[in-house]
DNA sequence: TCCTTAATAGTCATCCTGACTATAAAAGGG
DNA sequence: CCCTTTTATAGTCAGGATGACTATTAAGGA
């Protein structure tokens, strides 16, 4: 990137280097969490045209002195009210960039989309007036403004895929969690039930995925035998991967 | 996205919707091919400051009326002289967007990077004055202008990963190819030798990956027993994946 | 003709996974 | 207090997939 306009770039001859085509650059965030065994996404209600009153993914303009990733973290902090330290450390994944010329009816805007995973469910308290932010079940997130349904679908697919070969799932969990909760994350994001013994075997057989927490098997909450607690381990990748059960042969 | 500047986006209060921060948007292309059992990348020599005279990835400004993907295809056609039809059909993969504020010393430029795979080795004949385009062995592609070494590294990693779970490798091959040539693609991109019988077994066991070509086992070229010919099949994904031999346990 | 090279056919043991069965430890209802 | 329900956890078992090898076939070159 950052090319000089010149003949071979396709710019018109005699093109002035400073007279580049002007674009606005924004970020859009697909912030996901697992809540009550359902995948939720953070949505805001638009207060401005176009799509005034419609639900949309949070986002905003990239400022002149920050990268798109920095803008995404700033917007995330503003929308959720999470502490700077929390936002600074959580996983932000750049999805892709959407640049169709007609994405925005007012002007040429390209948007860099990010996906973020949040542990539990801190009700969003927008930094300023953002009581307009709400957790919405993923399947209820329609219609959305602009091409945000597409972005959300891409985010969902990317997260589903990354669960297969990374330890990302622990990002959906609190600091200490049970294997049942971790399994719930997979089942919720993938939308399929998993066999508890097999899931347990696989997770425990992957070095560095999770670490046992010493204490008693406290923290039941519901019925059933109390489960042991684990925390996220140092590993970041899964070898071999934990594949979605899709190629099922009966 | 395409957001209206407003208080909750982080824009200054009273911000005028049209006075968005101005950015230039470019595309950069990591065009890869396998040539003489080595991975090559298409580089151009810069004729303008900054980095005048340095090698760089081909690319250029996105025009006001085209998407980044369309700009990438246009630039690719201009740099390689490939036919419009060829360029229109080959696989272009959006990598990610690079937006560090200091990427370009002259102005604020964000660049959408793409990776492309080309079959054999059509010596690049730039559309206009682009005799400045050259195939360069991937490991010789340094130093490069701007952050292009980083982009190239990201492209290499992305392609390596996609070879594992997609049929992308056939994109490096001509219309008809031998399993040895296909294996060569994997070995070259991954930089590791693969066991020929095992590779063959895996490829043939994946439905739709390749289809046998009827004719005689023509097209030898070198020594050894002549190999049967295949063409790309209809499948696009590999289930289960063909994983890189990295987690080797001795 | 002998040697080298590369494709292709098989073998074998191991690892991983999906499908199940069984046991343990809680909560809740009668 | 006993019984049922629920969830966690321990094992078992067969089949598929893979890595490591051996063997055979069919060219080219010296």
UniProtKB/TrEMBL annotation, chains A, B:
Residues 213-250 are annotated as: Disordered. SUPFAM superfamilies: Nudix (SSF55811), Winged helix' DNA-binding domain (SSF46785). InterPro entries: NUDIX_hydrolase-like_dom_sf (IPR015797), NUDIX_hydrolase_CS (IPR020084), NUDIX_hydrolase_dom (IPR000086), WH-like_DNA-bd_sf (IPR036388), WH_DNA-bd_sf (IPR036390), WHD_NrtR (IPR054105). Residues 22-166 form the Nudix hydrolase domain. The keyword Hydrolase applies. Keywords: Hydrolase. It comes from the Bacteria. One of its GO terms (molecular function) is hydrolase activity. This is NUDIX hydrolase. It comes from Streptomyces inusitatus.
């Amino acid at each position: 990137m950052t090319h000089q306009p010149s003949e071979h770039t396709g710019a018109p001859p005699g093109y002035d280097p400073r007279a580049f085509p002007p674009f606005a650059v924004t970020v859009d965030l697909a912030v996901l969490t697992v809540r009550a065994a359902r995948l939720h996404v953070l949505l805001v209600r638009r207060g401005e045209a176009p799509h005034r009153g419609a639900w949309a993914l949070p986002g905003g303009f990239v400022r002149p002195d920050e990268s798109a990733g920095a803008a995404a973290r700033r917007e995330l902090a503003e929308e959720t009210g999470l502490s700077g330290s929390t936002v600074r450390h959580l996983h932000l994944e750049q999805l892709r960039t959407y640049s169709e010329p007609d994405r925005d009816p007012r002007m040429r805007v390209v948007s860099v989309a990010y996906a973020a995973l949040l542990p539990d469910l801190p009700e969003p308290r927008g930094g300023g007036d953002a009581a307009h932010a709400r957790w919405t079940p993923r399947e209820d997130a329609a219609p959305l403004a602009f091409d945000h349904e597409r972005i959300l679908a891409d985010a969902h697919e990317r997260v589903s895929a990354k669960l297969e070969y990374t330890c990302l799932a622990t990002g959906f969990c609190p600091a200490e969690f049970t294997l049942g909760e971790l399994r719930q994350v997979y089942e919720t994001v993938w939308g399929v039930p998993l066999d508890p013994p097999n899931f347990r075997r696989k997770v425990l057989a992957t070095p560095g995925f999770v670490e046992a927490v010493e204490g008693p098997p406290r923290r039941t909450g519901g019925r059933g035998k109390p489960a042991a607690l684990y925390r996220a381990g140092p590993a970041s990748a899964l070898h071999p991967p934990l594949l979605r059960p899709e190629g099922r042969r009966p």
